[in-house]
């Protein structure tokens, strides 16, 4: 078993689990590396065992798929084909002489370092939420939609007693339903998309009747819980002193601007807000993988343009769990065949490829429907903080553009410090570019997450030792 090639899969969400199971089933040793304490990521997030959840399946969609993945993973772990490393926060993947070294920080403190060697890598790094700023969005009680869902799934707690779920995107439906089922009074679901936008995408939507039925099911449950849905509306301000007390919502016109006179105030102690998701591409960027806009470019086998690197799931474009599972399956099978010296036959996964195409078209249709309001930035006042880490206001960003000539995200960052904090712009970048009127582009960083200086010093010391031990000038070793 020790002479079999080693594949490192980074991320234990739907794509990573599917890739791991597929590769292990085809004779490759797999190291599954994930930051969480349990497999599943956000979509299959599980409550801690100590909470003794009686019916965790009640918090999940497509529970049977999760059970099959979990059972297959456990079986491969018991057989020694898969090593599952939890609480490993990957900050860099290095490629040298055709092999890879995955660098990670261990545990919740992320202070101790570890390196994992592999012959190939599957990047299943998922995505992260996009939240656009508005007055009051930094108040305690305002959380992301995914954050509210994570609290419910992972800790079996709710963020408050009375909630408004707002923004745009398919995630809002399960979040509103989940909160209502958990006993939270959901005062309103505020969705900026217009219902008629779905009518212009009927062909792509009709091709996925299961997905349409899923959405209809959520809508029926919202009615059952008496949740008011405000379509083509948006939150324009959150109110409160020490914490959230209410939100003001308003209707949107055909141009994406607020219709005067439609404002209404809704009391609440929680606002769960989100405006879609963005691909997590940091590791792909450090490896030099080509990006198509904000997503990792892959071919029909889910291979990137860097030899030995595959990518699957939300990193290649936001498309949901079903698409991620399909891409992960293809990536795992392709990697396994190539690592064992073969050439993959696409006919072996022709059904998965067809499903990938249909699901991709469905995801593209949803992406067009759930676009944030075109004129959302008009409601952002100059004193609204847009970069929390560096406390940069919207007025400062606008000044950098109007008076200092900033025309891109990097220049705005250099002039205002927006994006220089702990999150490195992952939270504030969409808001900053919207205010600046420029394009959101990928920002190549040397590391995918903050790293203690002691870890970097140790890495430098080890690399220096290796260089002296194995000189490259042809002299004696």
From TrEMBL:
Q: Does the keyword NAD apply?
A: no
* Key words, A-Z: Oxidoreductase
Superkingdom in the source lineage: Bacteria
Give start and end of each FAD/NAD(P)-binding domain. Answer: 6-320
Q: Where is this region: Disordered?
A: 457-477
Q: Has keyword Cell wall biogenesis/degradation?
A: no
InterPro entries, per the entry: BFD-like_2Fe2S-bd_dom, BFD-like_2Fe2S-bd_dom_sf, FAD/NAD-bd_sf, FAD/NAD-binding_dom, Metab_Enz_Cyan_OpOx_G3PDH, Opine_Oxase_asu/HCN_bsu
**Domain BFD-like [2Fe-2S]-binding, first and last residues per copy:** 385-432
Task: Tell me the CDD domains matching this sequence.
Answer: GlpA-like_Fer2_BFD-like
Residues in coiled coil = none
Q: Give the PANTHER family listed for this entry.
A: ANAEROBIC GLYCEROL-3-PHOSPHATE DEHYDROGENASE SUBUNIT B
Name this polypeptide is given: FAD-dependent oxidoreductase
